[in-house]
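In this supplementary section we document a worked example of the pipeline. Step one takes a protein sequence of length 308 as its only input; no multiple sequence alignment statistics are reported here. Step two produces a three-dimensional model, which step three serialises into structure tokens for compact storage. The input and output of this example are shown verbatim.
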Amino acid sequence: MATPLVSVCMTTYNHSAYIARAIEGVLMQRTEFEVELLIGEDCSQDNTLAIVREYVAKYPDRIRLITAERNVGMRENYRRTALASRGRYVAYCDGDDCWVDKDKLQRQVEALEADNEIGMCYTRSERRIEHSDKRWSYPRGEMLTHFEGLLFNNTVENCTAVARRELIERYYREVQPEKHPEWLTDDAPMWIWFSAESRIVALEGVTAVHYLLQESVSQSDNYRKRIAFCDSLVDISLWFDSRYCNGKFAAKLLRKRMEVALWVLSYNGSFGEYFSRWWSDVKRTPRLLINLAGYGLAVKKVWRKRNS
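The serialised model returned by step three reads:
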């Protein structure tokens, strides 16, 4: 296998219904440089590994399989796959997503090659809800590239990102995400760190589809799991705010953390659960006692209850 300029990292677990589509999206890329596909297969319990091995046998000069005898979990699977890459640049595409633009890598690598200060390049994606016709372009608004913006609203879709491998290696050495089990996602902290340590550029155009599965780390019918994931995103931002801004945005982030949770609870759960969360946040940050959103959402919860 020739030394690639780009390594595509694809992590997968129980993706037998999607993995072929994801692989084909990488294989169809039109590039003027070598590309390798690394598939981190984490001991799936379905037919994912068998499908991957069929592709490896068919394209041994383009695909490498990374696996083990035991399941290592999402975080370690991401890490081992990224650190096994050989390219100057690393692109990401999870096994349940797919690329739909044949010129995706070519365009993004050209942008990265043009300026050594650019650490990562991303594009818009299309989000689709599993088993539904609902779809929309993401992000719907501005594509954010600066630290403060990503601290409050991470608009980077992982399956659209291409980054410098040397910076990814630095991220794992310096941030050590494995020491933060409370972080429920691996890509969000990485891109916030990239915005602090390098320049990020955003290219217009949809290049990938991100499928929102009914049950995943970031999506769930269980409202408590949704709240936990949103709490985790804010906790990640608080960590980076402390590291780079000495807590400058902590108050605003804590207010966001409270308001998102109470908004979900205004639709779900009991009144007791709502007020328990409100009181927990107020005890942690007393200034939130004067946050009118907490009272307004409580009134809406009462109104919804009466009208139901």
